[in-house]
């Protein structure tokens, strides 16, 4: 129940405001954290990004989680695709994996983010290859993905 406000988020994923609709004065054209352009809707289908959930009569502390994919067209938001790209670029830096192994590890990164039947397979693949890829790559990928993967995946691949 209730209604959703609109969120404004920069292309790198910094949340500017979860109340861009109700409080347009909170809007910023550019991100003050990183200088990137901000958006309030999906660049593919123009659907507004859901923000604060207003429930009549309920006052509560509400933690906002920005979406990874558009709820209307399923396209990854720019911050999600940038995280995936960075993780994949890191994988390309290692000399310890051959081309097939790199491709396999990269595809596991896509599935780690999505909560689906392939996530479990992706966890197994990730663990299989990341040790071989080297601790520097592993640490880099962890830094990129720690805030975007869900708790189950975190526990499974990093034990936390
Ligand atoms: Zn930013
Ligand atoms: Zn969309």
Question: Care to give the gist of this entry?
Answer:
The chain has 160 residues and is of the alpha+beta class. It has helices spanning 78-93, 99-113, 119-133, 135-145, 151-158; strands spanning 3-6, 8-10, 15-17, 38-39, 50-54.
How would you explain this protein's 3D organization?
- The protein has five helices and five strands, in the order βββββααααα.
- It is of the alpha+beta class.
- The strands form two sheets. It has a three-stranded antiparallel sheet, with no helix packed on it. Strands 1-5 form a two-stranded antiparallel sheet.
- Helix 1 packs antiparallel against helix 2, helix 1 runs antiparallel to helix 4 (135-145) and helix 3 (119-133) runs antiparallel to helix 4 (135-145).
- Bound molecules: zinc ion (2 copies).
- One zinc ion (ZN) binds at residues 10, 12, 14, 31, 33-34, 36.
Key descriptive features of the protein:
160 residues; alpha+beta; three-stranded antiparallel β-sheet; 5 helices; 5 strands; binds zinc ion
Low-confidence stretches: none
Q: DSSP helix count?
A: 5
Determine the fraction of residues in helical runs and give it as a percent range: 40-55%
- What small molecules does this complex bind? zinc ion
Order of helices and strands: EEEEEHHHHH
Into how many domains do the coordinates divide? Answer: 2
> What distance lies between the first and last C-alpha atoms, to the nearest angstrom?
34 Å
């Amino acid at each position: 129940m209730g209604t959703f406000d609109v969120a404004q988020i920069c292309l790198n994923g910094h949340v500017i405001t979860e109340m861009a609709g109700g409080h347009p004065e909170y809007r910023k054209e550019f991100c003050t954290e990183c200088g990137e352009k901000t958006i309030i809707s999906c660049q593919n289908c123009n659907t507004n990004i859901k923000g604060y959930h207003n429930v009549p009569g309920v006052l509560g502390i509400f933690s906002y989680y920005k979406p990874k994919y558009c709820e209307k067209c399923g396209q990854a938001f720019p911050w999600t695709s940038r995280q995936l790209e960075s993780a994949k670029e890191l994988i390309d830096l290692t000399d310890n994996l051959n081309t097939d192994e790199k491709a396999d590890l990269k595809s596991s990164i896509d599935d780690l983010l999505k909560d689906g039947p392939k996530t479990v397979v992706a966890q197994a693949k990730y663990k299989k290859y990341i040790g071989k890829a080297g601790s520097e790559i592993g640490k880099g990928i962890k830094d990129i993905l720690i805030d975007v993967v869900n708790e189950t995946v975190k526990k499974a691949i990093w034990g936390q």
